[in-house]
Amino acid sequence: MNSAEMNKVAERIAHKASALALQQQRFLADLIRIRSYTGDERAAVERTLQELRTIGCDEVWMDSAGNALGRIGNGRRVILYNAHLDTNEVADASEWPHPPLEPVIENGAMWGLGASDCKGGVATIVYGAAILKELALSGDFTLLVMGATLEEDAEGFALRSLVERDGVHPDTVVLAEATDLTLRRGQRGRCEIRVRTTGKAVHASTPHLGENAILKMMPVIAELEAMNAELPTHAIFGKGTQVVSLIEGPHTPNSVPSWCEATVDRRMMPGETMASVLASIRAAIEPLGATATIPDQPVSTHTGLRLDGPSFYPGWLLEQTHPLLAVGQATGRALWGESLPVDVWRFSTDGAYSAGAAGIPTLGFGPQEERYVHAADDQVDLAKLTKAAAFYALFPLMFVNREGDQ
Ligand SMILES: [Zn+2]
After folding, report:
1. Which CATH class for the 3-187+315-405 domain?
2. Per-residue pLDDT for 405 more than 70?
3. From the CB of residue 55, how many other CB atoms can be counted at a distance below 10 Å?
């Protein structure tokens, strides 16, 4: 297709997106009504599978980790759309202007828990696929639509399971997390480190006979904090950070504590690995008699699978010149006649696995706005929801078309 033909297709897609807007909003409202905290997403997965059937996917299934999947086409290039169905938990429903699980349309936006993170994204990718089906548009691609689980607690774990356990190997991944209709090409990474000191327990009435693990931890904490001055920096992401976020010991108020464990939250630059992070921390704290490990994140799927794995979520960055970014730009230009701004995310996403661990080129685009994520005024703009579905309909055509150009 030349660019004039592509613009014509873009116009038909934009039209169809508007025609399907109410249906898309109804689906989103249904998702918001279903409580789907991490590990407990079954009802939301089933509702998504039902919608994937309704829009006419060629195949619809739930994978072993309980993700909802739909397939369109059987072409050579495999494009995976990902948005997660689990939501952040509501801390205090009385702070919400509307009850979190009762979707309301107000000021041109749909309000409700998960609207911006990430059920608006799920409705977007499902309706991108719906538009392709309705217009009978196809190409040399296989499009997989994934309503993902487990993202809030263990981003990337459900996607890892799809790839490594179920053997689905996408050539590219597009994440419908909040970008406000702009493009995202990376994120900082994060990981958890447990730092431990050990002492000798004795009765608290004779502390001189013991060794106090909490006192031993004091210089270790100071050292961990001081490390912030020398953490890796990056031209785009700025500076890495680490913070002591938890501290624990034995719950025995009348004993000298025999152990103390501090948890460190570290934000990483692309390229940092488990080995490099541990090496830097160990160099700082081992001389003080402390040890460091990266703990396993306990993860259970709603299908009863254990997916425990290291609490390590690598950062990633797609090069400015990567063709995938050009496809995203061309898709935006064909639909709206302008170049989309490109940025990186401040938060972590399923891209920690796809791009950070598996090296699959990954791009972000979504209608949701970052300011509403995990907020009591959680909402997604309805006009943006429609526009984003059009983007997801055109993207696969642009993807294979541009490859044909090369
Ligand atoms: Zn999210």
Report:
1. alpha beta
2. no
3. 23
Q: Can you give the pLDDT at residue 404? A: 59
| CA 260–ligand 1 middle distance (angstroms) | 33
What is the CA(31)–ligand 1 centre distance, in A?
Answer: 15
Q: Which of 85, 86, 84, 54 is nearest to 70 (CA)?
A: 54
Q: Which of 151, 152, 155, 261 is catalytic?
A: 151
- List phi, psi (to 5°) of 376: -70, -20
Alpha carbon 89 to its chain's center? 16
Q: How far is the CA of 281 from the centre of ligand 1 (A)?
A: 29
Q: What is the mean pLDDT of residues 280-305?
A: 97
How much distance in Å is there from the Cα of 184 to the middle of ligand 1? 13
What is the CATH number that goes with domain 189-297? 3.30.70.360
Q: What is the pLDDT of residue 406?
A: 46
Residue 3 CA, ligand 1 centroid: distance in Å: 34
Q: How confident is the model at residue 262 (pLDDT cuts 50, 70, 90)?
A: very high
Annotated domain spans of the chain: 3-187+315-405, 189-297
Identify the three-state secondary structure at position 123: helix
Give the span between the Cα atoms of 347 and 359, in whole angstroms: 19
Q: How far is the CA of 327 from the centre of ligand 1 (A)?
A: 23
Burial class (CB within 10 angstroms; exposed 0-12, middle 13-18, buried 19+) of 174 = buried
Annotated catalytic residue 86? yes
Query: Given this model, what pLDDT does residue 3 score?
Result: 86
Q: What is the pLDDT of residue 402?
A: 82
Segment 242-271 shows an average pLDDT of: 96
SS3 at position 266: strand
Which residues are found with C-beta within 5 Å of the ion, ligand 1?
117-118, 177
> What is the rounded average pLDDT for all residues in the chain?
97
Phi-psi region of 374 (alpha: psi -120 to 50; beta: other; left: phi over 0): left
**151 in active site:** yes
CA of 188 to the centre of ligand 1 (A): 14
Provide the pLDDT confidence category of residue 30 given band limits of 50, 70 and 90.
very high
The pLDDT, as a whole number, for residue 272 is 95
pLDDT digits (tens, 9 = 90+) for 352-363: 999 999 999 999
From 63, 86, 152, 155, active-site residue: 86
